[in-house]
Amino acid sequence: MNKKRIIAGVDIGGTNTVIGFIGEDGDYLFGSSILTSPDEEANKFIVRLTNEINLVFKEYGENYHLGGIGIAAPSANQFQGTIESPSNLKWGNVNFINMMKEYFDVPISIVNDANAAAIGEYEYGLAKGMKNFIVITLGTGLGSGIVVDGNLLYGENGLAGELGHTIIEQDGRMCNCGRTGCLETYVSVTGIRRTIFDLLTRYNYPSELRDISFNQLTGEMVTEHAKKGDPIALKAFDFTGEVLGKAIANLVACFTSEAIILFGGLVESGDLLIEPTKFYFEKNLLGIHKGKVKILKSKFENGMAAILGASSLITKEIDKKVSFKLNHLSAVEKQ
Amino acid sequence: MNKKRIIAGVDIGGTNTVIGFIGEDGDYLFGSSILTSPDEEANKFIVRLTNEINLVFKEYGENYHLGGIGIAAPSANQFQGTIESPSNLKWGNVNFINMMKEYFDVPISIVNDANAAAIGEYEYGLAKGMKNFIVITLGTGLGSGIVVDGNLLYGENGLAGELGHTIIEQDGRMCNCGRTGCLETYVSVTGIRRTIFDLLTRYNYPSELRDISFNQLTGEMVTEHAKKGDPIALKAFDFTGEVLGKAIANLVACFTSEAIILFGGLVESGDLLIEPTKFYFEKNLLGIHKGKVKILKSKFENGMAAILGASSLITKEIDKKVSFKLNHLSAVEKQ
User: Fold this and answer.
1) Do the Cβ atoms of B156 and A257 come within 8 Å?
2) Are A3 and A65 within 8 A, CB to CB?
3) One digit per residue, pLDDT tens: chain B, 335 residues?
4) Predicted TM-score of the model (pTM)
5) Nearest Cα residue in chain A from B157
């Protein structure tokens, strides 16, 4: 029997790592997820990851052959195959592709998670047909995939788009990158948790959040309490939207994108975050851009944009439709 | 006699407008300048500008024929031929090319001044051979020309690169764009003048600058007093370099450029500005980029990078080496 090809897409997040097996038409077939532990070493993480990929494939993949693995990860350098000192994982600098190749004899590629999400949105999501857009991932950290004139922005060393590490507050919150005041210490799941505790100390409003410890508090809990009208949780979303809206307004002054697509755990809160973000974005936007730039919530859930983007890249590499060093979106499109 | 072709390059600044006649090899032959008055209407300015171009050409240009005019201007939209509500000139939205064509029957093009400077640096200056760099013009305002992977960044409507209008201080200084806290209200000739008066109110240090009115004070005077050791002027350069260094560090987090080239009136102060800018830039840079990005002072003087860039664009248009809508640097290079 001629088995159909299937690609494993992996999205490594700071909290969860999601695995999705993608068919030839870009359709999600089956998948799984494992926890990411920030303190675990990369080689131990890889044992768990490869076990899970094998387990899931064995259970559901009997009618398929595994054609390749596309990995989306923070601080990934797709030209080197490395993950370079990710802020939210204590891995240091690792050649992730070489490490994975000890377990799998198939083509493997790695790509920055936000870039993968941008490719996913471009090929299958809200950015179809767009030439200037930015995908911002709001998970444990904040990542950005920037598309300019149909090309992914890689920059001089393939590490462009570190919007999460632009400093927005002098002497602000301590960041895992070793500096202070980075955008992602305010705008991310981790950021909104910090904001909650900041607000609890500033205000006397009654709030059930006073019964939850810092380590217990999740992004979902913040959403849940905001939906019940908790004044601290609502204020936290307003503040997060304000910081994000201003940051995006500055970004648009530089890039004049047609849309900003938000994606990731924090965005699951929906309008709680999107509405204040839109409000402060328009308020802080340069006059010539007002009313012209869309802020959109990705329609993909749970890492799926990044998984689809990473799997689509490896598919193109396998099919040699495009050389891996030239896989700009426009190059891909011209095939 | 077969007269050689000459191109007029014009750099419209908020204070001075510089005219340079450029020969076929990109060599500056002769030129002039007129004052730009922020309160003068565009049609009156054009009368003075065209008179000056004619006058200078008549005096020195007898061995040449005028092949075209390339104009560099703030807020210029090269695809539309318009200048769109420049912050520092009260012109509103004007079709500058059409207005100029009433006076000259030669090809005329217009391009954003910072983009023109980026092209000038790329073709004749410090950016030769670079693929990722940013030119920042520090004159009356702050402009930026951003080159990504060999292409000028135009963005969705040709108005990308408004770095001067990224907001860096909430409820900060009032900006001509109608908002507050924009980068150019701190980092520009106008910005450092405002800083001087802010510092004069904060500190009791003796300073000869206390004898000069706001309207009298020029960027050159600030430089001159700093060179004589005036503590307020020195502090003003340190502060300006700090704000600029931080802004560039954030820019590099997004773009990972290999060099930032500074250009314009404020940069004539040399190390007074460049040294603190470098210091605060490195201090605020994301770890992965430290020590890898150059901050350079343009070697061109008095608008010359923008004049060379604007004249080189019109030359290419005349020679039909490249269609005007596709004049990305890489397209130009491929000829």
Assistant:
1) yes
2) yes
3) 688 999 999 999 888 999 999 998 889 999 999 999 888 999 999 999 999 999 999 999 999 999 999 999 988 888 889 998 887 888 989 999 999 999 999 999 999 999 999 999 999 999 999 999 999 999 889 999 999 888 888 877 666 778 999 999 989 999 988 899 999 999 999 999 999 999 999 999 999 999 999 999 999 999 999 999 999 999 999 999 999 999 999 999 988 899 999 998 899 999 999 999 999 999 999 888 899 999 999 999 877 999 999 999 888 888 765 433 333 333 333 33
4) 0.84
5) A256
Distance (Å) from the C-alpha of residue A312 to the closest C-alpha of chain B? 23
Is A184 part of the contact surface with chain B (CB cutoff 8 Å)? no
B210 close to A (CB below 8 A): no
Q: Is A232 helix (H, G, I), strand (E, B) or coil?
A: helix
| Polymer length in residues for chain A | 335
Nearest CA in chain B to A132: B156
Residue among A149, A154, A120, A116 nearest A133 (CA): A149
* Closest alpha carbon within chain A to B246: A167
What domains does chain A contain, in order, with CATH numbers? Answer: 4-118+302-333 (3.30.420.40), 130-297 (3.30.420.40)
Contact A154 B149 (CB under 8 A): yes
Give A-chain residues touching B153 at CB under 8 angstroms.
148-149, 254-255
Beta-carbon separation of A253 and B151 below 8 A: no
Secondary structure string (H, E, C) spanning chain B = CCCEEEEEEEEECCCEEEEEEECCCCCEEEEEEEECCCCCCHHHHHHHHHHHHHHHHHHHCCCEEEEEEEEEECCEECCCCEEECCCCCCCCEECHHHHHHCCCCCCEEEEEHHHHHHHHHHHHCCCCCCCCEEEEEECCCEEEEEEECCEECCCCCCCCCCHHHCECCCCCCECCCCCECEHHHCCCHHHHHHHHHHHHHHCCCCCHHHHCCCCCCCHHHHHHHHHCCCHHHHHHHHHHHHHHHHHHHHHHHHHCCCEEEEECHHHHHCHHHHHHHHHHHHHHCCHHHCCCCEEEECCCCCCHHHHHHHHHHHHHHHCCCCCHHHCCHHHHHHC
The verdict on B249 touching A (C-beta cutoff 8 Å) is yes
A131 touches chain B (CB under 8 A): yes
Whether chain B has a CB inside 8 Å of the CB on A280: the answer is: no
Q: The complex's ipTM?
A: 0.79
